[in-house]
Amino acid sequence: xxxxxxxxxxxxxxxxxxxxxxxxxxxxxxxxxxxxxxxxxxxxxxxxxxxxxxxxxxxxxxxxxxxxxxxxxxxxxxxxxxxxxxxxxxxxxxxxxxxxxxxxxxxxxxxxxxxxxxxxxxxxxxxxxxxxxxxxxxxxxxxxxxxxxxxxxxxxxxxxxxxxxxxxxxxxxxxxxxxxxxxxxxxxxxxxxxxxxxxxxxxxxxxxxxxxxxxxxxxxxxxxxxxxxxxxxxxxxxxxxxxxxxxxxxxxxxxxxxxxxxxxxxxxxxxxxxxxxxxxxxxxxxxxxx
Length: 290
Fold this sequence. Notes:
By secondary structure, this protein is an alpha+beta fold. It has helices spanning 14-24, 42-45, 69-79, 90-105, 108-113, 129-149, 160-174, 181-192, 194-205, 266-274, 280-286, and strands spanning 4-7, 31-34, 57-59, 65-66, 121-122, 219-220, 231-233, 252-256, 259-263. The mean pLDDT is 97. Residues 3-84 form the GST N-terminal domain.
């Protein structure tokens, strides 16, 4: 039995994004199981792994259950000391831990008024006094770290602190919230991060649009990098005979810039359609760099 990571909807579950980044960004394998928000309550679906009642939850191969994201980060760092979850420099490590802990326990107004929604972007978001206070505090602590690390990440190389703030960056971008140049540059680094782009592409390919996350504000195009054009097609002859991800035979087709590529299932195709350049195995096949 491998370690199993239970996650919520890719487009909406901010804590699931953080946990996935703690694995994916640091090269740690785990079997992913998605908890469907439309199927039943999360606590009900997780009841067999008591005391877990939320996502993300990690169930280790020995049966150990870790149901808190900060605990998950610390446990991964302990079990995989060479992965680099925390900075090696003591001062930077202390800063990263402080940042992650404050994110874990704070910014309730931002969470409530601007839930993560990677399927939409808005303008004209109302900014209450309490929301402005959250944004001001975020800018203060980001600025403190970035002034010392010189960016693009908070404490030097990408760390737990950045994984924890990835959904905050998505909220600031997705709701066009007012922040200064330094914070905008940090937000842009997240939106351009290939791992973040892969997560968002999977969210667009899998799961329903959940209307309770929608807001009645003017909509904008997604503010991240513009994906290379691509579309799903039903007929054609693919350049490849096996899926670049699984190695299985091609059954589903995609066209991009006049070329046709094949995949082993609809999800492999659709996640690639949503952002072709985010997927190294596909890019290597497309560009002949295998």
